[in-house]
Fold these 3 entries.
Entry 1:
Amino acid sequence: MSKLETNIIAPSTGTTITIGESGDTVALGSGATQTGFGGVMTPAFMAYLSANQTVSDNAITKVQCNTEIFDTNSAYDNSTNYRFTVPSGQGGKYVVFGAVQSNSANDQYNTSVYIYVNGSVYAGNTINFYNTTGSEASPYIQYIVNLSAGDYLELFGRCDTASGSNVAFYYSSAHSQAKSTYFGAYKLIE
């Protein structure tokens, strides 16, 4: 085996350099690092609800996740319209996720969570149950969505009770004080 020591490898013609052949493994030496390969999974954001949000019974309502954990491209509006807008030049496939926890209502029988794209429902999930103990329902959703620059994402929820009384999207679990209602997305490397 011979050793090649150089600072730059450039193609003699064209723009392609081939390292190895079919079936070969190309490995970095111990302690070596790489740059210029792969990519980063941004834009990305995650936000949560910092206080209970009162909602009308059986009404699909935008979830106002107002506290950002991170927002790599300042593309999520956490104070006005509670939406993520794909920045210029950042179209592609995004993993979008969220959860809506409804507070304890002794007659509640279902809670739903929805991902909206450009103002229309894209995907949804519902938990159906009859509650007599004051527990919470927390449906979760995750989807891969193909988005273009300027497209926007929103999280909506719905709580439906047998009595028709108003309920709330809950900001934390009574048991763990976790951030129970949240919304986020990140771009996949392609």
Note: The chain has a mean pLDDT of 84.
Entry 2:
Amino acid sequence: MNETSSPPNVFVVLPAYNERAGIGALLDGLAETMQEAGLPYRAVVVDDGSTDGTWEVLTERTRQMPAELHRHVTNLGLGLTIRDGLLAASQIAGEKDVLVTMDADGTHSPRLILSMVELISRGYDVVIASRYRRGAGVTGVALHRQVLSLGASWLFRAFFPTAGVRDYTSGYRAYRGAVVKKAFSTFGDRFVEAEGFACMADILLKVRRLGASFTEVPLELRYDLKRGSSKMRLVRTVGQTLSLLVRRRLGF
């Protein structure tokens, strides 16, 4: 990062659905990481109709940190929750600021944000925390899920080869503010159309069309640290991802 310029503001978008068990620890880790690095930040949390007390934890925990809370009265799914979080962040972020999306269940370490912000400052538009780079690791994920994720990576690389990208479905990413603003200006609500976990591939393919530059950092995915049950429905996610790939390949 250029020492003569002020650091960018970092807006961390957290989609949360029934994450009471882990959201507090994640917010504490985020605050500690940003304060140690001297980075100005704001957590933008969207509670997607949680029923386990997540909202109460959020309202209490965020009183002592820079945060903006949004709430869906009913559960709308990950796609619309990511969209609403990115939209809210893009409306208060500058073009040179950094927007980060990450899971709220404790499987993503906030410390990786520092490397991602550094790469954005070097000129990249999107930085992906990737499971398929040297130095990456996956702990606690069932083998069949790892195989399916790798298969999705191969398919997207085959049909939508993109310089700098191997992991098309990772939910942990950093975006230059200007790119997200341009995406909403170009696509409107259609910026995020896919449902469920397929929304991350949808977002990537949209910003790819805008000529964004990509790079990746190795992700250590700690699924063994996850608190609470998984929100992923495997068969549905595979179907949604394959449907997205076919539709985009055919130009729909």
Note: Residues 10-249 form a domain with the Spore Coat Polysaccharide Biosynthesis Protein SpsA; Chain A fold (CATH 3.90.550.10).
Entry 3:
Amino acid sequence: MVVMTTIIARTTAAILTTTLVLGAVAVAGAQPASTKIGMVKTFLAEQPKAFIEIATDDFKVVLKKTTGFDGDIVGRYDAFEIAQKLDAKELDFALFHAHEFAWVRQKYPELQALMVAANQRHAERAHLIVHKNSAVKSFADLRGKKLDMPVGTKEHCRMFLQKLCAAAEPKGPMEFFGSIAKSPTRNDALDQVARDKVQATIVDTQTLDFYKEVKPAVFEKNLRVLLDSEVFPPAVIAYKPGNLDAKKLDQFRDGLLRAHTIPEGRDMMKSWNVDAFEAPRKQYSESLAEIMKAYPPPAR
């Protein structure tokens, strides 16, 4: 009787142990850890909450379809905060503007570019636009005039404007210009300059090319480019070697390199003004060094 009781007890314990182990494995398999991706907050500056939610949700969908990973997007930190979290293994990957990536690598040299968000149709610049008949010959001639900085102005346009103002008036755009308007769209800002309602605006290459395409006569008759910025290298998805195992790193990279081949990926990239994710070219490091010379890191 004692022997039989012991056997039953041992059998029950074995069954319970096996059940618990299998249950734990099943739960772990059903709930894989989310891939944590930092997005520098300058990508989403001035964008409404609805736009931000759509943009991040679209990326999560594309990420899941191409890599199989669930994504957790963190977009409320600046470049240096994101870099610190990536370095500390609090993030798996991070999305930076190129000039921001150049800045943070001075402090975190181990961070590496995994892929870039490439636009194969044009080099990305910022363009300072004035009326065609304006007497303005240089940026200094705009002192005290009215500028239109439309909602959603791209970060590299802001950087270019700050650089121009720093050379002419160290106090910045608010002190250099007489007033600054904020049109609801970048096309509206160009219209305002064409109507001579404001004296200047600053737009990205995509906006300028699109405006020339849809309103060629308006541009030809009423607008001219006063100044062009340097070429800004494409944005970069970065990682820290050693943070992830090689299999997950390869799976993430190879999946996103195919993102432009699926409808969801093409739609997302169109809204981001990107053609595809690509491996960084050999010249990418050189372009980072050049853009940092033109746009040194801010004092911290």
Note: The radius of gyration is 25 Å.
